[in-house]
Prior knowledge:
Number of domains: 2
Strand content: 5-15%
Radius of gyration: 22 Å
Structural class: alpha/beta
Number of helices: 16
Distance between the termini: 22 Å
CATH topology of the largest domain: Aspartate Aminotransferase, domain 2
Shape: globular
Amino acid sequence: MTAAERTPVSIDRARIAELTARESARLDERTQGSGKLYERARRTLSAGVASSYQMRDPWPIYLDRGVGAAVWDVDGNRLTDFHNGFGSMVQGHAHPAISKAVRERLDDGTHFAAPTEDAVVVAEELERRWGLGRWRYVNSGSEATMDAIRIARAVTGRETIVKIFGSYHGHHDYVMVSIGVPYGSIGDRDNLASLPYGAGIPQSVADMTIPVPFNDAAAMERRIERLIDEGRKPACVIMEAAMMNLGIVLPEPGYLEAVREITRKHGIILIFDEVKTGLCIAAGGATERFGVKPDMVTLAKALGAGLPLGAIGGTEEVFEVVESGKVFQVGTYNGNPLGVAAARASLFEVMTPQAYAHLDALNEHLVSGCQAVIDRYNLPGYAIGVASKGCVTFSPSKIVDYETFKANQDGELADLAWLFNLNRGVFMTPGREEEWTLSVQHTTADCDVFIAAFEEMAAELTA
């Protein structure tokens, strides 16, 4: 029975609040060492963390080490890791092949600001996997999307960009637009609002980024045609082929093909942001998985196998502006020897066809196990996944874009699930919008730990 065919139980809000208070108290009791370290950290680190996405009230969970599919916090609690560094560690922690490559590189020098053979070998393999003929390196996903947009603007001579409303593409100003905003501020579907995500982003910059809904190619084309009529033909459309920060929102059949046709017809560069999907859902990422080829692709996270490394791929025609020197695509640490050594080991020794078969099997087990719990307890929600990525979406109806996510996602249940997981040895990405990431070092038994924690919560919610 599908979610649409069921009438889910109504979850008592007071019960959610009661369980949330109980689990919060348990977590605080189990993480006193993190609390003490937080008091020390906040004297020098702003808010006690290295990134705002690491914050948590009353304190963040500080980790000490990770091996395989597990991490340990500073209190000594062992946690099966489904967070995996915001999806970066699809290889798992301290993978022997990657550790060996990095150790050997350490002895031969860690930085030159000059190209190495590993940088060439990795680019050759990325070309083979994505079918895009030119590559450059950066150090993060934010740098990758920033440089890709700059290249697209240089190629087209145009400035306006189009993005999907609700998608996150890094922390530079042009894409910190229309991400996490109140439902009432979204605007009309054919005229979605360009809203800065947090302070410090000029509205004049945000106005150059035009959001459109996901899974609605017709709405995208209508908005592009209006922009053309206004003399603002876009340089590019930047998008995730599958949205990865509203849980998991997969493209509807035919949607990506339609987007490809629209952008090709209007001479607009199509950029697939594969920072989260690249190497995680197929050897050639979403481009391979969904069979639609963009003009450019951005990679990071899993590419570096735990080290900061990103890349931009594109056609020879697109990269002509880089090779001719019209665009300065630069960075002191671009192609850092440690990063490309780790990436080379990952690509050739870890993320193999067998690895992707393993990830597909694990995800199928995890998704089906969670869906069985949902069905057994008649919860409002559904389980969804693709290769190493997946989630339980707490919504009585299918999420297809940001609008349906904001209207239907039960954030209180998502928050409770995070607490339940952590108190039962499951480390998950904090926040209402994130998914699990499996690694090649996870096992079926690891997935069963996740399913058991979810079932325990379901039983207590519906008792």
